Amino acid sequence: MARCLACGDRTCLYTLTDEGKLYCLSPGTGQPYWMFDANKASGVKRTDSSPPPQFFSSPFVVQTRTEKGEKHRIHFGCGLADDFGYKAIMFCYEAEVK
Asked: Is 38 strand, coil or helix?
């Protein structure tokens, strides 16, 4: 959960799925603002027989103020597998929040 740095209101709820996706949700409604697919971004060549992704951490959010609003950097670690085994990957996804 991230709160507005200026007013303290809840602005974003971040969650990871067992499909290898990071979602930013509205805290009030649960509706997705956006989705980041770690599988596609990693370049790991997965097949139908590949094991599911494994997440090693909860999303860690670093917030900074900008002239346009806020910037959130969402850090998380996961293991993505191809047919040869798991590859450990750390992600830092950056999102503008207005």
From this structure: helix
Strands of the sheet containing 32-37, edge to edge, are: 2-3, 10-16, 21-25, 32-37
Residue 48 backbone class (left: φ over 0; alpha: ψ -120 to 50; beta: rest): alpha
Q: How many CB atoms lie within 10 A of CB 2?
A: 20
- C-alpha distances in Å from residue 9, one per residue of 12, 26, 75: 9, 12, 22
User: What is the residue range of 41's domain?
Assistant: 2-97
Find the angle CA(89)-CA(94)-CA(97) to the nearest 5 degrees: 150
**In a structure prediction context, what are the per-residue pLDDT tens digits for the chain, which is 98 residues long?**
676 555 566 778 888 888 888 999 888 898 999 999 888 888 877 777 777 788 878 888 998 888 888 889 999 988 888 777 788 888 999 988 77
Q: In the numeric block, which tokens belong to residue 49?
A: 């027989």
Q: Please give the tally of structural domains in the chain.
A: 1
